[in-house]
Design goal:
The complex is a heterodimer of chains A (293) and B (395). Chain A is α/β, with parallel strands linked by helices and 293 residues long. Chain A is built from 11 helices and 10 strands. Chain A has helices at residues 18-30, 42-47, 67-81, 95-100, 103-112, 162-168, 182-194, 208-211, 218-227, 252-255, 268-285, and strands at 34-38, 59-61, 88-94, 117-122, 148-149, 152-153, 173-178, 199-204, 234-237, 240-243. Chain B is of the alpha/beta class. The radius of gyration of chain B is 21 Å and the shape is globular. The longest helix of chain B is centred in the middle third of the chain and has 30 residues, at 215-244. The mean pLDDT of chain B is 97. Classes of the chains: A alpha/beta (293), B alpha/beta (395). The A-B interface holds A 32-35, 37, 44-45, 48-51, 53, 55-63, 65-66, 68-81, 87, 104-105, 107-108, 111-112 and B 21-22, 24, 48-50, 52-56, 58-59, 62-72, 74, 88-89, 92, 96, 198-200, 202-211, 214.
Chain lengths: 293, 395
Amino acid sequence: MDNKPLFIAGHTACAGCGQSLAARLVIEAAGANTIVANNTGCLEVFSTAFPESAWNVPFIHSLFENCAAVASGVEAALKFLGKKDTTNVIAQGGDGGTADIGLQALSGMWERGHDILYVCYDNEAYMNTGIQRSGLTPFATNTTTSPIAEKSFGNPRPKKPMPEIANAHGIPYVATASAGYPQDIQRKVKKAISIKGPKYIQIHVPCPLGWRHESALTIDVAKLAVETGLYPLIEYENGKLTARQIQPKPVEEYLKTQGRFKHILNNPEAIKQVQEVADRNIQKYGLRLEKSA
Amino acid sequence: MKEFIEGSRAVAEAVRLCKPGVISAYPITPQTHIVEELAQMVAEGSLNSQFVNVESEHSAASVVLGASATGVRAYTASSSQGILLMCEVLFNIAGMRLPLVLTCANRAISAPINIWNDQQDSISMRDAGWVQIYAENNQEAADMHFIAYRLAEDKNIMLPVMVCMDGFILTHGIETVDIPKQEEVDKFLPVYSPLYKLDTATPMTLGPLVGPDYYLETRYAIQETHKDVLTLLPKLAADFKAVFGRDYKNLLIEEYRTEGAEKVIVAMGSVCGTVKTVVDQMRAKGKKVGLLRVVSYRPFPYQEVYQALKDIPKVAVLDKSVSLGGYAPLAVEVKAACYGKKKTPKVISSFVAGLGGRDITVESIEEIYRRLTTKEVNLDFIDLKPELLKEKYGQ
């Protein structure tokens, strides 16, 4: 094996892009014997502008919502060719392509039991089109389609529980990860690749432009989402839950780092509601680190 | 071997002989019998193929897209709403130059929902970049699949092909069909060897973002390739005849008793069988009538259509679809084929019939010949029921 990078520099992602960072970690962990099917979105746009490509693995982009189905076809073809056992298939997309427009194709891929790792790069809005809210935009977020005005204080709904939806399909491996924890991403990708069947990993990837934070703060912001309980790092292996333990920080510490939450910083009621989201996560997934005696 | 079988069964047998490595489909009437037969063949082991049961036609088209990009011959079939749901994937497949074959069991479009035959579904995909060929009977529907793969996978073509067969009339009609031997098919259709594929040994990026500097040329290239299809189809017809013995002339058009004809109907698909019956009956009575069957709608054989019609005084174009608010889709092409020429038919009248499965009977065809006079008519609907049009709502 040579050490040729599989996702090379020179692409056109913004400074501090959490998605480009995570995408490189994912493909490097999966290795060169991997075929990638990618939904339309930032990642595909900034990494494949013809005649250049950042990808040193076979890569196919078709449409916004169909990478799970395209990957299913790739996997079926590899099976027919007798090459599936030596080739990994990754389908990947952003949160909109995964949780909204691509959810049906993804559900089909899970239900049919394809040997594919699906990776969702969750930057919590339609960033490629200019920060419109998606099904994975958090409660109270200011986006261009959940704006701040007299009759609105941002996105009215919490995030769609995609890891739970994935787990409800009875697939062998579901995990969340974060750009703030690079080694954890790679561990989970390697574990997922080693398991036969459909896998789902959802990675929290800060978007400095859309979240309005300094591009140097990507890792810090991502870590705070985990440390507050707003983005729990969990794994379901055959339905069995394990979670990364935290000593929860108050959600304000996360919210105040980003312009998209600026409007609620002086709104105790809204902050309380966001804190409730974190508290429910902490309760549900048993995130609180018990102090040893 | 000659078998007395349903059209769907004949197509499934033909597809099996083409040995697709991946089949994906979503059920929709009247396509279902085709994919049920194929699923049964895979289940029995008489067809070595990955059969992927998907959750929508959008995914069916996407699965075969992915399989084809991985270098494997793949197949899907659909109809009506399924074709419309596939729409963006169909454009994508052609743009990616993937040599897929799809059977369209032609059916009307909702609303109102209607499961019966017309050709609105495939016609609505005319701009997608796919080759579209229309079968008249079940033998031709089956045979067109061998031709479709051979055409699609030709290194100078690399475009998807839609084999269109009228829903129910052909898919559920039982006729004698000669199912060829595997050796014959193998002789005509070589093993698929793709120019490009997703392969970890030679990584490449398929489906990149293409900006204004390159996009125009990709569309131009497809348009140019369609010209090559017009040249290749007659050669494939000759090759086909050499192997299988059946003569499809040039696979672009079929002229039926047009010599010396004063009136010719232009049509596509199974209705041409009915037109031929009427032509024979009227010719027997001394009426100078004929039929021009368009086999390839995309690419459209403008030159051949013009040559076939230039000496015909009166031409009637029979459409089984409409372009609501505009001229009928086949009529548009026939008129375009004759536009600006010195010698043209004096009259090209346009008729619409058979929408939503309304029977096009011998009488319907006779009525078209009757209405084809020196006075040109446009979008004349045949067999309308005036009593159903009387009631006006909201008044």
